[in-house]
Amino acid sequence: MSKINLPEKLLDRLDLIFGKSNLQKILTTFKARQTTFRVNTLKNGKVEVLQKLQQNGFKVKRVAWFADAFILENKSQSELMKTDLFIDGKIYLQSLASMVPVIVLDPKVGDKVLDLTSAPGSKTSQIAMMMNKNGELVANEIDKIRFEKLVHNMNLLGIIDEKKEDWKFELINEDGIKIFEKYKDYFDKVLLDAPCSAEARIDLSDRRSYSYWNEKNIKDHAFLQKKLLFSAWSCLKKGGMLVYSTCTFAPEENESQIVWLKEKFGAELEIEKIEIKGLEKSRSLPEWRDIKFDKEINNCCRILPDKYIEGFFVVKIKKK
Ligand SMILES: C[S@@+](CC[C@H](N)C(=O)[O-])C[C@H]1O[C@@H](n2cnc3c(N)ncnc32)[C@H](O)[C@@H]1O
């Protein structure tokens, strides 16, 4: 492999996380992946989409663990973005790993769901789709510009639908840290797809994807994540389910966050095992820099990056 230009400190950390023998293989995955998308089943069926793609010369491959997801096998992403299917919001471009947290959350018809940090809305739209636009969904985002993008996407994908009486959908542009003041113990399911240092999105051919990396950035994100986790947990009612996810490798933003939540709410929470048939995942880290994580923390799930999927951390926590 040619010389890797990543910061020395980051390489040392990745070495500790993955181990020497795996690291070289992991580094080969730090590049752009094939385009993947999800069919927007609120607007059309899979058969219709597949037929249209075939008529236009697109070849796609199914994803074993999610029937609505596909991998583009020929042609480019920009060609796919020129199709009516894309322009009309009948398909949505989304990385495969980004689809996992919502599958784990498992939103159902009639649920009350919160997506605490939601722009540009990839997961919000997936939640709405899995609920078949029936129940209550609140999607929040602090950043004004990203919030506008969220509103745009929700319109395009047909999630905003004021005529449907059994569908209550609200978009909020607030600080997620404070949302629990309004929604304490309210939701059946909460997703916190947290802002993070995004190490799993590093592309070695694009310096901008890692030039801002430093340990302080990890620390700052870990600090913010705790505040958001507190809010997310407080919004959840007894018996409800929280899914926490990040697209980073840093244990401070992953396992250590859950250790913190456990210390704070101990007996109230249970970390559930995640099983998705056909999706390969690895165990979470058993320890980080002299701190051994207890057994329950091993129920957290790390998705290792490969040719098709980026790295992701996902954990499913029940409020007892
Ligand atoms: C990982 S991204 C979310 C991606 C989104 N879930 C999706 O799948 O499309 C994290 C988001 O959290 C937002 N964010 C950061 N701090 C926040 C806060 N205090 N309250 C609410 N949102 C916040 C960021 O602006 C960013 O849009």
Commentary on this structure:
The strands form three sheets. Strands 5, 6, 7, 8, 9, 10, 11, 14 and 15 form a nine-stranded mixed sheet that branches. Strands 2-3-1-4 form a four-stranded antiparallel sheet, with helices on one face. The protein starts with 7 loop residues before the first helix and ends with a strand. Helix 7 (122-130) links the parallel strand 5 and strand 6. It has 320 residues and is α/β, with parallel strands linked by helices. The protein has ten helices and 15 strands. Bound molecules: S-adenosylmethionine. S-adenosylmethionine (SAM) binds next to helix 7.
Tags for this entry?
single chain; 320 residues; alpha/beta; Rossmann fold; Alpha-Beta Plaits; 2 domains; 9-stranded mixed sheet; 10 helices; 15 strands; globular; binds S-adenosylmethionine; methyltransferase; transferase; RNA methyltransferase activity; RCMT; S-adenosylmethionine-dependent methyltransferase activity
Topology overview:
Blueprint: H1 8-18, H2 20-27, E1 36-39, H3 46-55, E2 60-63, E3 66-72, H4 77-81, H5 84-87, E4 91-93, H6 96-105, E5 112-115, H7 122-130, E6 135-140, H8 144-156, E7 167-172, E8 187-193, H9 215-235, E9 236-246, H10 255-265, E10 269-272, E11 282-283, E12 287-288, E13 291-292, E14 301-303, E15 312-319
Parallel strand pairs: 5-6, 5-8, 6-7, 8-9
Antiparallel strand pairs: 1-3, 1-4, 2-3, 9-15, 10-15, 11-14, 12-13, 14-15
Bound molecules: S-adenosylmethionine (SAM).
